[in-house]
Amino acid sequence: xxxxxxxxxxxxxxxxxxxxxxxxxxxxxxxxxxxxxxxxxxxxxxxxxxxxxxxxxxxxxxxxxxxxxxxxxxxxxxxxxxxxxxxxxxxxxxxxxxxxxxxxxxxxxxxxxxxxxxxxxxxxxxxxxxxxxxxxxxxxxxx
Length: 143
What we know:
By secondary structure, the protein is an alpha+beta fold. The protein has one domain (about 1-20, about 35-135). It contains 4 helices and 3 strands; from the N terminus they run H-H-H-H-E-E-E. It has a 3-stranded antiparallel sheet, covered by helices on one side. Strand 2 (about 115) and strand 3 (about 125-130) form a beta hairpin. Helix 1 packs across helix 3.
């Protein structure tokens, strides 16, 4: 239960300090305080919201590998719709989107949902998949 309180506190701090978090050097190893936690919580929320937007708009689950998922979320999809915008500096050499500790965000499918989290914080967001039809929108004829 204490971990949930920490996650809520991190989310509140992320909202209250969004400007400071955007300007912080999150990759600095000597950074002290909550800024990396706030950045990670904010990005976990943004990624989950973007995936939910993709699911709602296209009625299908996107591929969950970073190299395929993030281009789709950033506008390389059939409707050119941008669900997410992250700076290129937030990627590692393999093209994965990374948290402030340079670890790739974990995005995995579980029963009826997609889980988004950072390995360094206990903050999880879930995208619910219960209302998704079994066929992709690409399989439906256009009007």
